[in-house]
Amino acid sequence: MSRLLLCICVLLFSSVAWSKPQQFYVGVLANWGHQQAVERWTPMMEYLNEHVPDAEFHVYPGNFKALNLAMELGQIQFIITNPGQYLYLSNQYPLSWLATMRSKRHDGTTSAIGSAIIVRADSDYRTLYDLKGKVVAASDPHALGGYQATVGLMHSLGMDPDTFFGETKFLGFPLDPLLYQVRDGNVDAAITPLCTLEDMVARGVLKSSDFRVLNPSRPDGVECQCSTTLYPNWSFAATESVSTELSKEITQALLELPSDSPAAIKAQLTGWTSPISQLAVIKLFKELHVKTPDSSRWEAVKKWLEENRHWGILSVLVFIIATLYHLWIEYRFHQKSSSLIESERQLKQQAVALERLQSASIVGEIGAGLAHEINQPIAAITSYSEGGIMRLQGKEQADTDSCIELLEKIHKQSTRAGEVVHRIRGLLKRREAVMVDVNILTLVEESISLLRLELARREIQINTQIKGEPFFITADRVGLLQVLINLIKNSLDAIAESDNARSGKINIELDFKEYQVNVSIIDNGPGLAMDSDTLMATFYTTKMDGLGLGLAICREVISNHDGHFLLSNRDDGVLGCVATLNLKKRGSEVPIEV
Length: 594
Fold this sequence. Notes:
- The protein is elongated and about 155 Å long.
- 49% of the residues lie in helices and 19% in strands.
- The protein is an alpha/beta fold.
- The chain starts with a helix and ends in a 10-residue tail after the last strand.
- It has four domains: 22-108 and 233-290, D-Maltodextrin-Binding Protein, domain 2, CATH 3.40.190.10; 115-229, Periplasmic binding protein-like II (D-Maltodextrin-Binding Protein, domain 2, 3-Layer(aba) Sandwich); 297-373; 433-584, Histidine kinase-like ATPase, C-terminal domain (Heat Shock Protein 90, 2-Layer Sandwich), CATH 3.30.565.
- Strand 19 and strand 20 form a beta hairpin.
């Protein structure tokens, strides 16, 4: 039962979540302030909520700039505004008219946007020509009824609005301050939308007798005085993010809005009708040569520079100084880089010279072993050659097969002596790494053979253990041999300085994994007195006659093989050191596992 109840609750919660209506925001031009716009249009949103299922609409009030920005950021999906702003926005975003407003005034006409040029009743201004060189106020340069309609009138009269007025102040919204500025004498005239003066008189904040409209006219059916031609009323538009089905539902709901509906009364309209032609506004904009958004921004920049010339000059100076400083930094950086490159080159040359000294030092230490290795083949060659001479000097005819056998033995021993010399020359000669397929077991045996006499002299045992199936690796044979000899020689020296000098042991373990081989050289010396990184630092040594290059060279060689080199103390309870080399299998691309 409890599980059944839980399932029912989940289903109910899911159904509630799924049925949550989609949220939409309708941008509204707030001529009289945000609060008045919200109060005016909220009932219209509630009407749409009732007639459009699965959708919830909200008022988003703002001026021209705020609505443009909201459209750019995708914060609104619909907009109720005048045709002027619609045409301005349509140059940037795909918009479509859904319906045009039928005004509550003027017998429900769809052409109710125009401008009234208002001056004080006691002023000397009788015509628009009297305002030449005067100060006027308007709401916004993009307001069709608040400014652009007047500019169209001035163009038809041969006036240039950019130079005709002495100054044009754009005060924004709400519209009340426009007429307050005229009343208080701060401006000579105000360019206001149609019926602004009548609305303020109706609210009791102004007296109609204190003001006068220039170039007055009152078209048939229009209740307010107008100075310009009338243009199409506000319309309801949708962005391209709105689906066709939703646009159709909204349009139908708007067209069916009754004139006595609370939404219509509060919005001050008698209903909506099909979108009417915007040809009159398009012609006006064409006459005004309305600039594109890009050019408008550039003009705004130019205007700002003209009004703030001192800041512009300061900005240019700061830019020049910053550029010069940047060039100076680049020059200094180039100098430092060249110096660092030269220092690095010198350090590499010194490292090469020191590495040669290290190689010579290693050869000197294994000199006794070299003499022992060479003496053996030389003694064998001498013995075999003397035996051959004695046979040839005998009275009986020499046996050809036995002579050939002696010569083959002599050749084998001479070859062995040559290989020993070749190995030592390879250790002495600094050359570029030559990567070839190498048997690591052979390199370990050669390293031990070169140090065998030293091991015997110090009575140190050395053992080799192999785990897994051996395979070849790709390596620099001479470089890797030098590393093995260096590490074994370090173990020899460490054991000689410890209490186990007469019972020293070195174990070499080779663990062949799937993609790598781990070589461990383990001794029973005194162990490490400090961390691995310090010991492997260049020029650091614990020996009286050491150069401090051995372990650093070992690390560099193993790094060139894409391998890993580590020094550590033994962890099996026995005092001593472990040198571990991790090397990749031939052809392997798998990273080394430590």
